[in-house]
């Protein structure tokens, strides 16, 4: 394992070269300062990291590249890199961007498989949550969410949220849809997602007993104009009277 606090310049250059060969690029706090990132609304129970200045044209340039070749830009307080296992661990107010998606966490672990594909897992520590935000291409729509653990596939841009998972969709600054579940799988490329609840343990419980968790969704009607007070959103609430699929 290597620590950024004890790395020589030669070692750092070698790591950066290996990372780029693997299909992603790392920016280390204090070593390669990154111009800042798009702001992300602070999720519940998570302190907002110190603001970083906008990265300017880098985001726009990356977003025009084919999805499979968009680099990952990562900023953190420390990095441990294991070349043999192809594993990198970032710690401390970690911020990662790829194209139009931004992820934040206390800790991020990245692993490169035999095919050179990069997979990352983000964790919230001490009761906090990891979070992400994505700007949908070709419009003024945004998707954001948070969970205790977030798994990110850099090739398919699939985000999987586990434990205390929440996902919200915005049209401009207006909240249009909101979802809660034990697990949420979001396909950013196809704008498609799946929600999974947690079944109750033992025999099925009565409605309202509080055993097990179901998915929850608030879905606004699709309209050409912004919703008015007379166009109330559809509100779906959970019920524990029906078995939910397991994780």
From TrEMBL:
Write out the GO biological process terms: Gram-negative-bacterium-type cell outer membrane assembly; lipopolysaccharide transport
Chief location of this protein within or outside the cell:
periplasm
Which spans does this entry mark as compositional bias, Polar residues? 227-241
Domain named Organic solvent tolerance-like N-terminal: which ranges? Answer: 73-190
Record region (Disordered): 42-72, 222-247
The record's GO CC annotations read:
cell outer membrane; outer membrane-bounded periplasmic space
Instruction: Enumerate the GO terms in the molecular function aspect.
Output: glycolipid transfer activity; lipopolysaccharide binding
InterPro entries in UniProt? LPS_export_LptA (IPR052037), LptA (IPR014340), OstA-like_N (IPR005653)
Q: Where in the cell is it found?
A: Periplasm
Compositional bias of kind Low complexity:
42-54
Q: Which UniProt keywords apply?
A: Periplasm, Signal, Transport
Under the heading Pfam families, the entry gives:
LptD_N (PF03968)
Subunit note: Component of the lipopolysaccharide transport and assembly complex.
| Family stated for the protein in its record | Belongs to the LptA family.
What job does this protein perform?
Answer: Involved in the assembly of lipopolysaccharide (LPS). Required for the translocation of LPS from the inner membrane to the outer membrane.
Name of the featured protein: Lipopolysaccharide export system protein LptA
Which species? Candidatus Symbiobacter mobilis CR
């Amino acid at each position: 394992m290597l620590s950024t606090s004890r790395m020589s310049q030669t070692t750092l250059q070698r790591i950066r070269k290996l990372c780029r060969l693997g299909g992603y690029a790392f920016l280390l706090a204090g070593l390669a300062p990154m111009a800042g990132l798009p702001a992300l609304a602070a999720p519940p129970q998570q302190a907002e990291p110190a603001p970083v200045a906008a990265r300017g044209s880098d985001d726009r340039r990356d977003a025009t590249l084919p999805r499979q070749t968009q680099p990952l830009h990562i900023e953190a307080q420390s990095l441990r890199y294991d070349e043999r296992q192809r594993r990198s661990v970032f710690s401390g107010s970690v911020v990662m961007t790829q194209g139009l998606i931004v992820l934040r966490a206390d800790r991020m672990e990245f692993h490169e498989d035999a095919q050179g594909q990069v997979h990352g897992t983000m964790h919230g520590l001490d009761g906090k949550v990891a979070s992400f935000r994505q700007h949908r291409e070709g419009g003024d729509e945004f998707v954001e969410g948070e969970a205790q653990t977030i798994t990110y596939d850099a090739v398919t841009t699939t985000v999987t949220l586990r434990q205390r998972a929440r996902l919200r969709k915005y049209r401009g600054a207006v909240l249009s849809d909101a979802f809660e579940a034990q697990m949420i799988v979001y396909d950013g490329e196809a704008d498609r997602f799946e929600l999974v609840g947690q079944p109750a343990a033992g025999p099925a419980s009565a409605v309202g007993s509080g055993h097990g968790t179901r998915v929850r969704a608030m879905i606004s009607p699709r309209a050409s104009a912004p919703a008015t007070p007379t166009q109330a959103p559809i509100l779906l609430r959970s019920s524990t009277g029906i078995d939910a699929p397991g994780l």
